[in-house]
Amino acid sequence: MDHFADERDYKLLENDKYTFFVLGRIMGGECNLLLTDHEKLIICFSGNPYPVWIWTPDGAPEEEKENLVYQVSIMAKNAGYMPMLYTDADYAASNACYEKIGYVLRGKLCTMG
After folding, report:
1. Based on CB atoms within 10 Å of each CB, which residue in 8, 19, 58, 98 is the most buried?
2. Quick one: DSSP state of residue 1?
3. d(Cα 65, Cα 59) in Å, to the nearest integer?
4. CA–CA dist 14, 18 (Å, integer)
5. Could you tell me the sign of the dihedral formed by the alpha carbons of 90, 96, 100, 104, in that order?
6. What is the pTM (predicted TM-score) of this model?
7. Would you give the DSSP letter of residue 53?
8. What is the dihedral of CA 56, 60, 64, 69, to 10 degrees?
9. Closest among 38, 99, 93, 101 to 75, alpha carbons compared
10. What are 66-96's pLDDT values in tens digits?
């Protein structure tokens, strides 16, 4: 995983340009955390009180998404933050995943229970 974004990452976001417009802007500035494999994963955190942004392509295997959400949630919780999750995923498919790792769904906004 690299700690810098380049044209490959911006290209990935083109298909989600409205949803991830903010992420593209954040990647162009200073980030406390930026991890990317330039193909299937971008994680970006600009700083408190702003959220951690995670991009994965549509159709990512559920096990990968569940594991990623869990790892980032635990990192945030251990750092003293209240992990929150905003999702545009299909609720029927994702409710069980989020509840399994400790989130309580409240519409599209989820918080750790």
Report:
1. 98
2. -
3. 10
4. 9
5. positive
6. 0.68
7. E
8. 40
9. 101
10. 778 778 778 777 877 777 766 665 555 566 6
